[in-house]
Backbone:
């Protein structure tokens, strides 16, 4: 019997109540079925956790052999080995936009809209990082907030150009963030690494032609 992945869907109804559905793609019927129905169909079993995938699965005798492929730890390490030689400096954006601490919020809002940016580093006159501003920081700010310094996040996780891209990607995934300011000498901002930069690099390394600007940003530039 081979494992079939369990997918969990959450729904919120008109009264704000939540329900959860666990479903599998049935190999026999080719459609979604409740995961708990597998144990009575004669071909499947109970929902169980499989540490190989870090996910819930159902063992099914009708599943194609190796329908879900686990990558052992040693194999994952070999796959990641070439990426460890790639540094943040080879992937990050070096053409960055910074804000002065006194940059007005209305100006930042216009920049986010026009350039479709995900974050803007706030730096002092010497280019040293002071904080970060994102579009969400501009949603319903306090009445006293007037400029970047009033809404910026001061406790910022950063990276440096020589850090392996694998480590930087792991930091973003662990912290649940999409942007890492790249710092140079004396804490000055010299670049920005985004999760899109990492994905773009992987896509380009596989031979895909991916423009530097996202589709949304290109559309904004054409307007």
Residues:
């Amino acid at each position: 019997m081979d494992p079939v992945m369990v997918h969990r869907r959450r729904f919120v109804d008109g009264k704000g109540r939540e329900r959860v559905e666990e479903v599998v793609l049935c190999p026999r019927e080719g459609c979604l079925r409740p995961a708990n129905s597998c144990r009575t169909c004669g071909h499947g079993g109970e929902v169980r956790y499989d540490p190989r995938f870090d996910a819930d699965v159902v063992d099914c005798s009708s599943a194609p052999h190796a329908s879900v492929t686990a990558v052992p730890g040693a194999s994952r390490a070999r796959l990641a080995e070439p990426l460890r030689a790639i540094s943040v400096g080879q992937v990050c954006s070096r053409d960055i936009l910074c804000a002065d601490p006194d940059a007005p919020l209305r100006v930042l809002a216009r920049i986010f809209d026009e350039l479709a940016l995900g974050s803007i580093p706030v730096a002092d006159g010497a280019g040293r990082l002071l904080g970060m501003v994102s579009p969400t920081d501009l949603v319903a700010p306090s009445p006293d907030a007037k400029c970047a310094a009033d809404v910026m996040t001061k406790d910022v996780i950063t990276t440096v150009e020589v850090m392996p891209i694998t480590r930087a990607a792991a930091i973003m995934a662990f912290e649940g963030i999409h942007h890492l300011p790249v710092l140079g000498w004396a804490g000055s901002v010299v670049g920005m690494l985004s999760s899109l930069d990492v994905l773009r690099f992987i896509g380009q390394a596989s031979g895909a032609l991916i423009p530097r600007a996202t589709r949304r940003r290109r559309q904004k530039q054409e307007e």
